[in-house]
Amino acid sequence: MGIEVGGLLGLIWLIIVIWAVVKVAKSSAGGVAKVLWILGLLIFPLVGLIVWLLFGPKG
User: Fold this and answer.
1) How many angstroms separate the CA atoms of 5 and 21, rounded?
2) What pTM did the predictor assign?
3) Residues 53, 8, 40, 46: is their CA dihedral positive or negative?
């Protein structure tokens, strides 16, 4: 049962990170800022997501 729960949580986490990447891509931030935010989200998923939620582009 532990593998199924871990797999489900991993899938949920992946969906959240993909959602964040899409939000960054659709934001009004400049091209370089978008690339940096997306790289941060992909390279450091947990820390990147927290930093993006706190300081990322809002529009």
Assistant:
1) 24
2) 0.77
3) positive
